[in-house]
Design a protein that fits this description.
The protein is built from eleven helices and eleven strands. It has helices at residues 39-42, 61-69, 88-93, 95-105, 123-126, 143-149, 156-168, 187-199, 216-223, 228-240, 243-259; strands at residues 2-6, 12-14, 22-24, 27-28, 54-58, 77-79, 110-114, 132-137, 173-180, 204-209, 262-265. It binds iron/sulfur cluster.
Length: 267
C-alpha cells in the first residue's frame, strides 16, 4: 500500500447521518480494500490504483480540529464515516488517536465504527469520554470469507475479541452486521454471527444488505473471479431477484428476538 501525506483545511463536517452531528475522517482511501465498499462511489474515487492500494493521510487534522472545536457547538462526532479510522496506517501515524485526545479535552461525544482490532489500543482514551460508543463490523466468522470480502481488515476472531475488550471497559459496544453478501451470507451463517456478537458483549446490532452503487459491480466481478458460485449469487440477488435479502431480514429479526439482542434492520 502506498500513502501520501496531505494537509486539510477543515477537520469535521456536519453530518446528515442519524445520531451523528459531525463526521471526522482522518484518512481518504482505505487499506481494508473491502470488495463491496461504497466509499469509492461516495468519494467519486477514480484513481489509477485500485481501491485499497493508496491512502491519503490528513496529517494536520488534529491541529485543525483543535481550532474548530473552539467555535463549534458540542455534538456527537462520527469517527469515521467514509473510511476506516483504524486501518493499518493508523498504527504508525496515530491521527485518529490524536483527534480523540483533542475531542476528549473538549468533552465532545464520540461514535466510532471500525473493522480493526487496532481500536483496542485507544481503549484508555475512549473509556474516559463521558458519552461514547463503538461499533465493530462483522460480516463473516471464517477467515477465508473475510479475506475475500475484506482483505486488509482484521480477521473475525480479532474483531470479536476487540468487541469484548471495548465492552469490558465500559464502552457501549455494538455490531454492524453488513453488508449481507449473497453467496457468503446465508441464513445459518447470519444466525451464527448474531449469536457470536451477542456473546462478545454487543448491546445491539445493525443489519444491512449489499447495495448496488456505481462502480461496485465491476470491482466485485474482478474480486470474485475465482468464486463463480458466489459471483452468480451476488449477480442474481442484485439484478434478478432480490428476495434473498428479504429472507435474511426476516431471519435476522427472528434470531435477534430469540437470543435477546436489540436489532435495527437498516433496509
Ligand atoms: S473498511 Fe469501510 S471504508 Fe474501508 S474499504 Fe472496507 S467498507 Fe470501505
Amino acid at each position: 500500500m502506498r500513502y501520501a501525506e496531505a494537509t486539510c483545511k477543515t477537520a469535521m463536517s456536519k453530518s446528515g447521518l442519524p445520531g451523528l452531528d459531525y463526521t471526522l475522517n482522518p484518512y481518504t482511501g482505505c487499506e481494508h480494500g473491502c470488495i463491496y465498499c461504497y466509499a469509492p462511489s461516495t468519494l467519486r474515487y477514480g484513481g489509477p490504483e485500485p481501491w485499497g492500494a493508496f491512502v491519503t493521510a490528513k496529517t494536520n487534522i488534529p491541529v485543525v480540529l483543535e481550532k474548530e472545536l473552539r467555535r463549534m457547538k458540542p455534538g456527537v462526532v462520527g469517527i469515521s464515516t467514509v473510511t476506516d479510522p483504524y486501518q493499518p496506517l493508523e498504527g504508525k501515524l496515530k491521527l485518529t488517536r490524536s483527534c480523540l485526545e483533542v475531542l476528549l479535552a473538549k468533552r465532545f461525544p464520540v461514535c466510532i465504527q471500525t473493522k480493526s482490532a487496532l481500536v483496542v489500543r485507544d481503549v484508555d482514551l475512549i473509556r474516559d469520554f463521558p458519552e461514547k460508543e463503538a461499533g465493530m463490523t462483522i460480516t463473516a466468522l471464517d477467515d477465508e470469507t473475510s479475506a475475500i470480502l475484506e482483505p486488509g481488515a482484521s480477521r473475525p476472531g480479532e474483531r470479536l475479541d476487540a468487541l469484548r475488550r471495548l465492552s469490558d471497559n465500559g464502552i457501549p459496544a455494538w455490531a454492524f452486521v453488513g453488508p449481507l453478501v449473497p453467496g457468503f451470507t446465508d441464513g445459518d451463517r447470519l444466525a451464527d454471527i448474531l449469536a457470536r456478537v451477542r456473546d462478545a458483549g454487543a448491546s445491539r446490532v445493525l443489519v444491512d444488505r449489499l447495495r448496488l452503487k456505481p462502480g461496485l459491480w465491476g470491482r466485485m466481478e474482478k474480486a470474485l473471479e475465482g468464486r463463480p458460485e458466489a459471483l452468480e449469487a451476488c449477480r442474481e440477488s442484485l439484478f434478478v431477484d432480490q428476495s434473498v435479502f428479504n429472507d435474511l431480514r426476516i431471519r435476522a429479526a427472528q434470531v435477534c428476538k430469540e437470543i435477546g439482542l436489540e436489532c435495527e434492520l437498516c433496509y
